[in-house]
């Protein structure tokens, strides 16, 4: 699919798109409608008339279900996407005899590389007078501090030339300034700090609105640095992303509906919030010790009849729950590169992704469960996960009842519960007194080796296979199978 418009047409052909003809406001009304539709699992929405913004239409709930995302990306399993870069890495030549056999794989890599183009439809129109007021940004909850860009594709490169396209909410201060909520552990924050240390002055930044579904998913994905996220977009999409270079030098998706060009003054900071977040609580600036950079919008480019895409969050399960599940599947193969013992992972939708993770492993030695707990907390965005439960490979992490049984059966709290005090946590966690400093909980619910039980051996009950064989005909007669 070339862009967001193709995706909307595809959704409509599947009867997964609601068109709303009545005029609604982007302040509270559209977000409330989107939440109700998502809670009812009724599909995506396209608002044809937007109060105060006659030039625009608004799309929402584009990530209707994991199954829809999978089919849109054209794969049998979402894990295939995470396997693509790994297969190419495996084929890199290690010696002279390997070089010829690797040429086909290197050509395959070229299919995923981004491509620079000289034209983009969004350059047809431009607004330079208070450009942020031109955009139908949402006010999603009554006590939000302002209107917000809630799914902006923040585009930038760091001083090393690594390109990024990421989603950070942006609170609009006025028609020309907004506050970018990139937390200290995010790529944007690190690039900003590098600019401050090396160059000072202005860091070129652009905000793209809307793109194809693969690029939208890439932007919110925890791609490990220093992998170029514009390259990773090619792996997710299945083909290289076309890019357009703005006058300020920033590369943006050529298929965007609109692009806001500007910069961050690297030493200009501001409070941000309140904002009703995905935990279902207001994230207030008075509760955290963080300030965020101010984005200066110089102009906005936009396509004819542009479509704004905004996501809404609140108590789960909303659109971000689908996004989280898709990311879970895509990044499982990459997690296994770091921890080969990992069998599967589940971020339960009511665990709001960063809150709870359940991981099954092939346990090989005493203490292996705790080793995995500590390793996960030291790996990428898993560093923010508050509660991790590790189970043995025969326990399905997606079956909560099996997980509860494993906790009840294999956990001796004084031995198997690990609490990490005063650890860096998700700055949005409503349970933490002084975010982003909180604590973490690890539960080793794996089956225990004798060494971990002081020699005690606990034997599980098992059916007699011969008895089951004799009863097989009766099972079929009375139970149908």
Automatic annotation (TrEMBL):
Record keywords, A-Z: Lyase
3-octaprenyl-4-hydroxybenzoate carboxy-lyase-like Rift-related domain: residues covered: 119-316
GO (cellular component) term, any one: cytoplasm
Gene Ontology molecular functions: carboxy-lyase activity
EC code(s) of this entry: 4.1.1.-
Residues covered by the 3-octaprenyl-4-hydroxybenzoate carboxy-lyase-like C-terminal domain: 322-445
Keyword Lyase: yes
Domain 3-octaprenyl-4-hydroxybenzoate carboxy-lyase-like N-terminal positions: 8-84
Family that this chain belongs to: Belongs to the UbiD family.
Identification of the protein by name: 3-octaprenyl-4-hydroxybenzoate carboxy-lyase (UbiD)
Recorded name of the encoding gene: ubiD-1
């Amino acid at each position: 699919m070339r862009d967001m418009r193709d995706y909307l047409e595809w959704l409509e052909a599947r009867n997964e798109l609601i068109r709303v003809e009545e005029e609604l406001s982007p302040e509270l009304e559209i977000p409330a409608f989107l939440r109700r539709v998502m809670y009812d699992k009724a599909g995506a929405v396209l608002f044809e008339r937007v109060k105060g913004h006659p030039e625009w239409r608004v799309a929402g709930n584009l990530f209707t279900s994991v199954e829809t995302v999978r089919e849109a990306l054209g794969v049998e399993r979402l894990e295939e996407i995470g396997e693509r870069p790994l297969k190419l890495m495996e084929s890199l030549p290690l010696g002279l005899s390997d070089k010829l056999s690797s040429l086909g794989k290197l050509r395959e890599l070229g299919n995923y590389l981004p491509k620079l183009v000289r034209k983009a439809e969004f350059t047809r129109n431009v607004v330079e007078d208070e450009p942020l007021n031109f955009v139908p940004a949402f006010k999603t909850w009554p006590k939000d501090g302002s209107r917000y860009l809630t799914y902006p594709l923040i585009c930038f490169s760091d001083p090393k030339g690594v390109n990024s396209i990421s989603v950070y909410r942006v609170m609009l201060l006025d028609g020309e300034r907004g506050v970018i909520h990139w937390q200290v552990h995010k790529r944007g924050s690190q690039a900003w700090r590098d600019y401050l240390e090396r160059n000072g002055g202005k860091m070129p930044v652009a905000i793209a609105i809307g793109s194809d579904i693969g690029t939208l998913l890439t932007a919110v994905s925890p791609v490990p640095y220093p992998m170029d996220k514009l390259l990773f977009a090619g792996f997710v999409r299945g083909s290289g992303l076309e890019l357009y270079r703005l006058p300020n030098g920033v590369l943006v998706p050529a298929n965007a509906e609109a692009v806001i060009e500007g910069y961050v003054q690297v030493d200009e900071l501001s409070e941000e919030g309140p904002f009703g977040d995905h935990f279902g609580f207001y994230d207030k600036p008075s509760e955290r010790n963080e300030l965020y950079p101010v984005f200066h919008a110089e102009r906005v480019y936009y396509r004819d009849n542009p479509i704004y895409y905004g996501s809404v969050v609140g108590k789960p399960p909303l659109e971000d729950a689908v996004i989280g599940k898709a990311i879970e599947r895509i990044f499982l193969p990459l997690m296994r590169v770091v921890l080969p013992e990992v069998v599967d992972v589940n971020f339960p939708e009511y665990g709001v992704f960063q809150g709870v993770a359940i991981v099954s492993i092939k346990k090989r030695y005493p203490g292996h469960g705790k080793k995995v707990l500590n390793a996960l907390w030291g790996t990428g965005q898993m560093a923010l996960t508050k509660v991790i439960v590790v189970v043995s490979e025969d326990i399905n992490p997606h079956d909560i009842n099996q997980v509860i049984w494993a906790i009840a059966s294999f956990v001796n709290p004084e031995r198997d519960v690990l609490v990490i005090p005063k650890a860096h946590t998700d700055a949005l966690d409503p349970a933490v007194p002084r975010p982003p400093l909180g604590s973490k909980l690890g539960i080793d619910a794996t089956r225990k080796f004798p060494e971990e039980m002081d020699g005690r051996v606990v034997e599980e009950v098992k059916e007699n296979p011969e008895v089951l064989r004799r009863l097989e005909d009766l099972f079929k007669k009375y139970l149908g199978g």
